[in-house]
Amino acid sequence: MTTTATETGLDELDAILARARSAFDVARHASDEERAGWIERVAADVDAAVDELVAVADEETHLGPVRLRGEVARTTGQLRLFARVVREGSYLEVIVDHADASATPPRPDLRRMLVPLGPVAVYAASNFPFAFSVLGGDTASALAVGCPVVVKAHPGHPRLSRRTAEIATTALREAGAPEGYLALVEGYDAGIALIEHPLVAAASFTGSVAGGRALFDRAAARPDPIPFFGELGSVNPVVVTPAADSARGAELAAGLAASFTSGFGQFCTKPGVVFVPPASTIERELAEAPLEAGRGPLLTDSILRGYLAGTRRLVGVPDVDVVAGGLGEGPEAAPLVVAVDAPTAAEHAGELLEEVFGPVTLLVRYRDGAELASTLERIRGSLTATVHAEPEDDVRELVDRLTRLAGRVLFSGWPTGVAVTWAQHHGGPWPSTTSQHTSVGTTAARRFQRPVVYQDAPAAVLPAALREDNPLGIPRRVDGVLEIPGV
Amino acid sequence: MTTTATETGLDELDAILARARSAFDVARHASDEERAGWIERVAADVDAAVDELVAVADEETHLGPVRLRGEVARTTGQLRLFARVVREGSYLEVIVDHADASATPPRPDLRRMLVPLGPVAVYAASNFPFAFSVLGGDTASALAVGCPVVVKAHPGHPRLSRRTAEIATTALREAGAPEGYLALVEGYDAGIALIEHPLVAAASFTGSVAGGRALFDRAAARPDPIPFFGELGSVNPVVVTPAADSARGAELAAGLAASFTSGFGQFCTKPGVVFVPPASTIERELAEAPLEAGRGPLLTDSILRGYLAGTRRLVGVPDVDVVAGGLGEGPEAAPLVVAVDAPTAAEHAGELLEEVFGPVTLLVRYRDGAELASTLERIRGSLTATVHAEPEDDVRELVDRLTRLAGRVLFSGWPTGVAVTWAQHHGGPWPSTTSQHTSVGTTAARRFQRPVVYQDAPAAVLPAALREDNPLGIPRRVDGVLEIPGV
Predict the structure, then answer these.
(1) B239-282: per-residue pLDDT in tens?
(2) Which of A282, A398, A434, B407 stands the most exposed, by the fewest C-beta atoms within 10 Å?
(3) Are A450 and B436 a contacting pair at CB < 8 A?
């Protein structure tokens, strides 16, 4: 099979957006039950095609069938979770304030809910060819709330993107969704034209800081700026206390090795900077660790080039020690563990404390809390921050510091692996994300909605969610008090 | 009394932000009860100083003591409402997912809440010297959730700004809030430096499209872009059906006259474009209406200049008729009603369908639903849209159209007057606002927070809101199900 490069022309893009706009007019009037049914049908049809899809994905990404099969399950599970979210109804954030003629000034009847924004541009990532691509969390959350989606395919897996889109558009059509509710565009120029297209109401992106920043800037520079939900770059600091290193350094070294080489280090939550005590068991164990599982082909040539440049940047800083692995050459990335003392890391933060995408991690040796704190100050916003401590450690101040730095603070685990649940938050201060919203978990739906309030509206024009008798049976706040039907 | 122009120097700005940053470290650890107490104390002290404040405000804004006294009550009521919001606790959006070892892959324990962003820059408006100024809704919502505020004073009321800030900072100090939790800066250069300051975590703005766009662009161009919550410009379309005009044209004309001249037309929700049938009672009645209450001094010389230029732009379009009033000269703005046929309005949308701040409204005569729809298509995003119809009118399609255009759709009323309640939404598509959040009402608190999730955290490090026994007694979603304590 050969891959034919395809570039979506600008006239074709206009036609795709026109169809998306028409689809929006249908979808925003569809019931929650209808939209839930559409995406559940997509999930079912993708699951049914898992063998075919995983085969294509493995050819294009080299991520291996076991990982890819799990990723399909996660992706279809995510679609089904968003179906549950819209049926539950809280995602509409309904608030009803009854009129109060006795107030000064008299208060009107006000009924607020969220409505979908309009067609959403989704820029797919390379490292999760299912879960952050054509049918990833961005697409699932947008389709669930009534927003048509135009996916910009990642050039790293073009055939998989097309096949996934075919299965999904067929499933949507057969389930009764409007024509154009999901579409795929390809090519650099189409991607630029998409973010600037007048009919696009919002955009989401997962990828590099450089790519995300370029799209963010264009979204902000539009005559009508649109929301841009970008997930860019993250070093995901880990802090190991001396007590934890003493108690279970070998176990932590094995856990770290598995985490930073997982998916050949191509996870946005890869632990990239690990604070350890001097002369740690972790460092000693890593020097002997079998890292060969982390050697492999990266997703694209440009990621490989970036990895080689990034690892050279790290080892080029004076006093950086190579603990394990080495600089790779050729088509496969070699795993690498480097180490440096905290003062050097702080001094060379620009070279050392920035993300290098691929199977590398940097150990930062800190002698005391002051060195730890001042080096953490130099780390920019991250998706995650991890603590490995023992019960006798007082980590409250550390946790407070990490909470300012990251959107997920985790304990005694590793940041790779992001559960898709109600409480999940996958986001953090710049540059890890551009917004105050998550890209994983049910609250991701909030990104593609805006509030509307109806004042003194006749019952005949009110959406069902706002009617006095609450026909949808959804949770609402009424006159300041939360009400859950049936409770 | 003379007004001394004051410019905050850049060194002073640095010192103010450093204090705000320190205050943040205290405030984000304060309890909801403590923060509620701080802003309630501010409300009490402002109420106690109402006579003095209203006198200064009237000298600087000419808005009159009755309106200004009402605005003080609204402002302190708003502070008290946000105190209730933080005590109620839903604003933290707590979600708890317990660990599930049986899931594939096993799920960790995840506990999510919102945390404050950091110091917020608030750009005050001129037209509400209390409710959208130093202690307006932006300040109240930020202080309530734990964000220090640095207000950029509006030059239209410098003495009032300083006196309000003095009263508030004294009240905060006496109530136990950290030094620097609220500060005031003045001057154009300080305003620019503020939006670009590394310690500012978010900004809010109420004012013109040009001013808001300039600040939005700077916020987006930062090395670390920050959220910018701007309320810019809005024409607030009103649609009167033929049946409503027949049934109560005279009453509607009186209501419109009162609304568009209220505050000398200097409301962001002023009805600026009113769709009426041809040969309407409304137009005939307005020609005779007493509009003199709308004649008066505008807030600033620059607003007066903008009003004169804007009204000249309107009457300069061919086939625009002057229905009532006229072009003013000198220091007072003259109220003005103009009218045009819908096709001309659509053709000259750039001149006619843009906001003119001040006591002017444009009647657009539409002959049928098609003319109405095609002209509405040319109106940009608005804070409000209003329908005046009779029970026999089927307005569902119209309401759908207006919902796409505006954040508040109201019936049988006028858009000036924005109730501060739980359900209120004051926002809309660009250019009325830059974001998907409100600047009035309790959900405004969401703007200055970001989510954080704790994974497998020991109980000792969890914030009270996330502990298993829910010691704060706040509403939470647990394992996907909303729980309200005591219900």
Answers:
(1) 999 999 999 999 999 999 999 999 999 999 999 999 999 999 99
(2) A398
(3) yes
Question: Which band of pLDDT confidence, cut at 50, 70 and 90, is reported for residue B367?
Answer: very high
Strands (E), B232-277: 238-240, 273-276
Distance from B169 to chain A by nearest Cα, in Å?
A: 26
Q: Two tokens at A154?
A: 């990642």
- Which residue is it, tokens 């569809």? A30
Tell me the residue type at B183.
A
Do A144 and A113 touch, CB atoms closer than 8 A? no
**Beta-carbon neighbour count of residue B186 at 10 Å?**
19
- List CB contacts of A392: < 8 A, sequence separation 6 or more: A243
Nearest chain A residue (CA) to B25? A400
Residue to substitute from B461, B467, B481, interface A, most A β-carbons within 10 A: B461
Angle between helices A281-288 and A242-261 (to 10 degrees): 30
* Chain center to CA of A311: 25
* Cα angle A80, A82, A86; round to 5: 120
ipTM, interface predicted TM-score of the complex = 0.96
List the A110-116 sheet strands across, edge first.
A481-483, A476-478, A95-97, A110-116, A449-455, B406-411, B382-388, B238-240, B273-276, B360-365, B336-341, B321-325
Chain A's closest residue to B396, CA to CA, is: A461
**Known catalytic membership, residue B147:** no
Q: What is the mean pLDDT of residues A76-90?
A: 97
| A-chain residues near B450 (CB < 8 A) | 407, 427, 429, 436
* B423: chain A residues, CB-CB within 8 Å: 95-97, 110-112, 453, 477
- Whose tokens are 């001249």? That residue is B261
State the Cα–Cα distance between residues B454 and B470, nearest whole angstrom. Answer: 15
Q: Report CA-CA distances (Å) from B389 to A394, A409, B271, B340, B410.
A: 66, 54, 16, 21, 11
* Other CB atoms within 10 A of residue A273 CB: 25
Q: What angle do CA B92, B94, B95 make, to 5 degrees?
A: 155
Closest CA to A384 of A412, A359, A357, A403: A403
DSSP string across A448-481: GEEEEEEES--GGGS-GGGSTT-TT---EEETTE
Q: Across the strands, what pairs with A185?
A: A152
B231 flagged as catalytic: yes
Distances (CA, A) of B73 to A102, B51, B79, B107, B323: 15, 12, 10, 50, 37
Query: Any idea of the CA torsion for A454, A455, A457, A462, to the nearest 10 degrees?
Result: 20
Residue B90 has pLDDT above 90, yes or no: yes
Average pLDDT across chain A, whole number: 95
pLDDT for A105 = 82
Cα separation, A487 vs A470, in Å, equals: 14
